[in-house]
Amino acid sequence: MYLYANYDLKERNTFGVSCKARYFVEIKHASAIPTLRQDPKLASLPWKIMGGGSNLLLTHDLDALVLSCNYDEIKIVKEDQHSVWLSVGAGRSWHDLVTYTVEQGWWGLENLALIPGNVGAAPVQNIGAYGAEVQDTITRIQTFDLRNGQRIELRKNECHFAYRDSIFKHELSNRVLIHRVTFRLLKQSTPNLVHEPLHEAMFVNHPNLKLENITPRMVYDAIIKLRQERIPDPSVLGSAGSFFKNPSITLKHFQQLQQQYPDIPGHKLTNGCIKIPAAWLIEKAKWKGRRVEDVGTYYKHALILVNYGKASGKDILNVAEAIREDVINHFSISLEKEVVVW
Question: What is the CATH number of the domain that holds 56?
Fold first, then answer.
């Protein structure tokens, strides 16, 4: 464990925004927490948890101790004829984990390939893509209490998973540090192709392909191709993926919008509401590909805000707020940020 002072977080957030933390530390073991608590200066500061910085917008320097877990081991904790239970350190790269599982031929994570960030952040956000969410495979999560370093284990039903949401964004926000996540993966399964673009990508070049012949690796490869075609590489162009959540509106509101916008897409939810793609709303509000100095929306995907150079976090937030206001004015729909703002 090494404690850094006045630590620039620029290389630790995918927006590439320069902000300094008063102190920064990476930890592997629970014993580090009481050790840090013994320092009166550190104990008096707010403690904030940071993963891979892939769903984070930094808007100012942090007078805080920023902690990150760098425990990255992968181990099988249980296995039977049908399943394998995999315990993974929070500091492991998410995409590295997905790659490892498809190389073993295991089903469950292949639809979530190429999502940036670390394993520990995945349940916080309940990351999802192409018809899958990480909660589909999680069985339990091991954490450290930031007050005393005690181990706290949560089972899946205790995590309050919802659309891009979990208990770690609410009651347990900056109170526990995720150390390990356990996933149950399947040795045999059918591919999840409910997302239409993925289904098309799988069969467009293989019209005679049979469902039972599809492997996790084939889905993984198709997902990577789809993402690379639409989403910028954050190492080349700073971004944090989807900036806003897809909003849900009442059926009545949707029907009213259909009168003005007959092409408006919508997906009916079990509660009767209609989920609208935020990217469609932003594009209709004439923000797709638009740029304000060093901040803009990606020309291939309106839901992605990008840093074209030296934009500050406040610059990015200002553009996000302008987009949000225009969507409200056009559709009477308020977009909620998916990205966490510090």
Answer: 3.30.43.10
Residue 199: CB atoms within 10 Å: 16
Full domain range(s) for residue 147: 74-186
pTM metric for this prediction: 0.86
- Which of 44, 69, 94 is the last residue in one of the domains? 69
Do 57 and 84 belong to one domain?
Answer: no
pLDDT per residue, tens digit, the chain (342 aa), is 889 999 999 999 999 999 999 999 999 999 999 999 999 999 999 999 998 898 899 999 999 999 999 999 999 999 999 999 999 999 999 999 999 999 999 999 999 999 999 999 999 999 999 999 999 999 999 999 999 999 999 999 999 999 899 999 999 999 999 999 999 999 999 999 988 888 888 887 677 888 888 999 999 999 999 999 988 888 889 999 899 999 999 999 999 999 999 999 998 998 999 999 999 999 999 999 999 999 999 999 999 999 998 899 999 999 999 999 999 999 999 999 999 999
Integer Cα distance of 281 and 323 in angstroms: 10
Distance of CA 2 to CAs 26, 174, 257, Å? Answer: 7, 20, 55
Q: Based on the structure, what is the number of domains in the chain?
A: 3
Burial call 129-139: b when 16+ CB within 10 Å, e when fewer: bbebbbbbbbb
Contacts of 2 (CB under 8 A, 6+ apart): 25, 26
Q: Which among 110, 82, 98, 95 is positioned nearest to 216, based on CA atoms?
A: 110
CA angle 142/191/278 to nearest 5° reads: 75
Catalytically active residues, by annotation: 164, 242, 338
Bridge pairing between strands 274-275 and 267-268: antiparallel
Task: Scan for tokens 């993974």, then name that residue.
Answer: 88
Q: Is residue 185 within 8 Å of 72, Cβ to Cβ?
A: no
